[in-house]
């Protein structure tokens, strides 16, 4: 079944791309990922071009008035909390890391508003490290495909890594998210239009 899943993903999404756009530096990507929490990538993509014109790096972001920052990011939700996180994050990057996000998971997670998932996504996209953060889309696939029964994303991540083994990669991570969004949505899922679920269903009935 693993071979079928991987070959199907390669056929459907041979060159998957991150859904967050509008960033051009590691700092900007980290901010975009932080903004995407409790929001949609579409909402974040609609505001990051203007945000990064105003403050393209940690130096300018740290000096942006909080009320201005809040107004720029408010459409993505939790604007007050996120504006504080971003302000403190930019300040800390300047103080400890010369304005650039660190490459180590532990150091990233010391930054305001950056949890394990945010750090993992960042490292996967920027440095192509084989981190495998499990979001709601990948968690849903792990359940429907019988790879994991765990409700915790971290616990499900361990099952997914064990299942895919040396095939774990940033590309696979993006493929899974793309597949879940297009073929395996949380609501109104039609198994006849979901090739992997359909094949697994046939296999389990044998």
UniProtKB/TrEMBL annotation:
Cofactor(s) needed by this chain: [4Fe-4S] cluster
UniProt xrefs under Pfam families: HhH-GPD
UniProt domain HhH-GPD: residue ranges: 35-182
Binding note for cofactor: Binds 1 [4Fe-4S] cluster.
Gene3D superfamilies: Helix-hairpin-Helix base-excision DNA repair enzymes (C-terminal), Hypothetical protein, domain 2
Group of enzyme by EC: lyase
The protein's name: Endonuclease III
Organism: Chlamydia pecorum
The organism's taxonomic lineage, starting at the top: Bacteria, Pseudomonadati, Chlamydiota, Chlamydiia, Chlamydiales
Gene behind this protein: nth
């Amino acid at each position: 079944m693993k071979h079928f899943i991987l070959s199907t993903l390669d056929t459907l999404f041979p060159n998957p791309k991150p859904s967050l756009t509008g960033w051009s530096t590691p700092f900007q990507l980290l901010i975009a990922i932080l903004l995407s929490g409790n929001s949609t990538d579409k909402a974040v993509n609609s505001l990051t071009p203007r945000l990064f014109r105003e403050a393209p790096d940690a130096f300018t972001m740290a000096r942006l008035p909080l009320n201005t920052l809040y107004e720029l990011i408010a459409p993505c939700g939790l604007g007050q909390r996120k504006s504080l996180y971003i302000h403190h994050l930019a300040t800390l990057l300047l103080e400890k890391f010369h304005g650039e996000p660190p490459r180590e998971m532990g150091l990233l997670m010391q930054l305001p508003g950056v949890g394990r998932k945010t750090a993992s996504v960042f490292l996967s996209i920027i440095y192509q490290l084989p981190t495998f953060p499990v979001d709601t889309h990948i968690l849903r696939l792990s359940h429907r495909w019988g790879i994991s029964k765990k409700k915790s994303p971290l616990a499900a991540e361990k099952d997914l890594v064990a299942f895919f083994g040396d095939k774990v990669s940033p590309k696979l991570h993006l493929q899974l998210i793309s597949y879940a969004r297009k073929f395996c949505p949380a609501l109104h899922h039609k198994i006849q239009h979901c090739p992997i679920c359909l094949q697994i269903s046939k296999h389990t009935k044998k």
